[in-house]
């Protein structure tokens, strides 16, 4: 039993570092797309971006960022994103295998395909929800820091937030702990849907291959790319609502755009149309390439550890 516990601990640590390293590399590669996606998604709820100067779309955003803010600003918030993403993705992968043992123990995938498929969905969703409980304040701060388009070029004293720690401290001071977890419930809903598809479909698809452990890199990448694209589109409206809710923190009660999550869903649909739920979605599809690389790199890095 002691040997089994030690083996499980080593496997957990191995999963944690393999997931974290692969995530840091992949996220840095797609950081410009990530920032464009965030700006398009939350600009309607940002006090720092005026409606007159709002970005008209992905191309407009890509063109204007280097002109107005400098080329390096494409990577604004990337360090915070890597810091946030390392524990997020690493915990997702580590917990995924823990939950797989819980949900898939004793199930033969060849004899009970749908039971195995459901187990993969459950393990992926549970992993995402569990890790989110730990890292949500970091996700909140990264969103706020990255979405400050109009703050670029201002002095440190003029900016709303001067970094990850400053954002966390100011939000905690003005709103208390609830400010750091604003939009948490809709995040859990979205993350379960996204992660269930993300891990469930990927593991199931690889399991259908003749030799899953020796799958060619290009095949693994194509499977991962398809999975991340579909997962991202399905869960995107939840992501838009949660990020809009994040933008509420720091505002006075009578200045808040949305009373609660349900009110946010209703107002976006009524005032901006259903297409507003998918603002930045194409950028997200491109960004999904990074997530696909994470899945593939994870397998490669884990093999080296």
UniProtKB/TrEMBL annotation:
Topology with respect to the bilayer: Multi-pass membrane protein
**The keyword Methyltransferase is assigned to this record:** no
PROSITE patterns assigned: SOLCAR
* Biological-process GO terms, alphabetical: mitochondrial ADP transmembrane transport; mitochondrial ATP transmembrane transport; negative regulation of mitochondrial outer membrane permeabilization involved in apoptotic signaling pathway
Which GO molecular function annotations are given, in alphabetical order? ATP:ADP antiporter activity
Q: What is its main location?
A: membrane
* Keyword Membrane (UniProt): yes
Q: Which GO terms describe its cellular component?
A: mitochondrial inner membrane
Key words of the record: Antiport, Membrane, Mitochondrion, Mitochondrion inner membrane, Repeat, Transmembrane, Transmembrane helix, Transport
Chain positions of Solcar repeats: 10-102, 115-208, 215-304
| Assembly and binders | Monomer.
Q: What is this protein called?
A: ADP/ATP translocase
């Amino acid at each position: 039993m002691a040997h089994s516990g030690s083996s499980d601990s080593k496997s957990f640590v191995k999963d944690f570092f393999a997931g974290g390293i692969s995530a840091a590399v992949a996220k840095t590669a797609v950081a410009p797309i990530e920032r464009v996606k965030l700006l398009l998604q939350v600009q309607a709820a940002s006090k720092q971006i005026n409606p007159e100067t709002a970005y008209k779309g992905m191309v407009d955003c890509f063109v204007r960022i280097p002109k107005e803010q400098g080329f390096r600003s494409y990577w604004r918030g990337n360090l915070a994103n890597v810091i946030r993403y390392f524990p997020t993705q690493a915990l997702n992968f580590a917990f995924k295998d823990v939950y797989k043992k819980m949900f898939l123990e004793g199930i033969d995938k060849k004899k009970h395909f749908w039971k195995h498929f459901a187990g993969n969905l459950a393990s992926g969703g549970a992993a995402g929800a569990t890790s989110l409980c730990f890292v949500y304040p970091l996700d909140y701060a990264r969103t706020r820091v990255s979405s400050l388009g109009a703050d670029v070029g201002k002095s440190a004293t003029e900016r709303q937030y001067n970094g990850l720690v400053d954002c966390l401290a100011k939000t905690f001071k003005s709103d208390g702990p609830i400010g750091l977890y604003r939009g948490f419930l809709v995040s859990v809903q979205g993350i379960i849907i996204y992660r269930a598809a993300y891990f469930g479909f990927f593991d199931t698809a690889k399991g259908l291959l003749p030799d899953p452990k020796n799958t060619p890199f290009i095949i693994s990448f194509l499977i991962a790319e398809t999975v991340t694209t579909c997962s991202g589109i399905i869960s995107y409206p939840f992501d838009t609502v949660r990020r809009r809710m994040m933008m509420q923190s720091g505002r006075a009660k009578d200045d808040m755009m949305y009373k609660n999550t349900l009110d946010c869903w209703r107002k976006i649909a009524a005032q901006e149309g259903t297409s507003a739920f998918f603002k930045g979605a194409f950028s997200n599809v491109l960004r999904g390439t990074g997530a696909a690389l994470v899945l593939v790199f994870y397998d490669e890095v884990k093999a080296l550890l």
